[in-house]
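S1.2 Input.
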Amino acid sequence: MILPIVAYGHPVLRETAKEIDKNYPGLEQLLADMWETMYNSNGVGLAAPQINKSIRLFVVDSLQIINNLEDDEKEDYPGDEGIREVFINAKIKQLDGQEWLYNEGCLSIPKVREDVSRKTAVTITYLNDAFEPQEKTFTGITARVILHEYDHIEGKLFIDHIKPLKRTLLKRKLDDISKGKIRVDYRMLFPK
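S1.3 Output.
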C-alpha cells in the first residue's frame, strides 16, 4: 500500500525515533509499504518518520542512482556499488573521509534542493530485515543516502545542514509546504 509522506512542519519529523524489536506489529507489511511508497514517489530512501511512525527504521536503494550513472561519473564514487537495504535500530559508529557537497532533496520537503556537506564514508551498525546484526562501511552516494535517512530517525532534516541565511531565504517555501500549498505527484500528510 502506498502511504502518505509526512510534510515539513509535522512534529514527527523532529522526534528522536524509538528502537523496535522483531515483534513490532505488522513489520513485514510496513516494510513492503515503505518500499512501494518510496518507489512510487521516486525516492532513493525513506525513513519511518516520513510515514508518521517514530521508529528507528529506514530503507535505502542507491542501486538506482549508481546504475543510472554514466561510466565517467562512476569514477566519482569508487567502491560504491549501491545497495538495496533495510536499516533497523541503526547507530553511526564512525564518519570518515573528506566533506563533500551534493545537491540533496527530500520527499518531506518537495521542490527544495540544497547543497549539503557530508563525510565520504560512514560505518554503521544496524539490524537487517531478518534482524541479523550488521556492521558495514558505506562510501560515496550510498553513504550520503544513509546519512540523510539516518538524520530522519534522529529528528533532523537536510536543511539543518545548510547555512542560516539559506534557511531564512527558504522560509516562505517551507511555510507553504507545511500549509499544504504545494503540488506533488504523491500523497502527502500535512501538519494540522
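S1.4 Remarks. The first strand starts at residue 5 and ends at 6.
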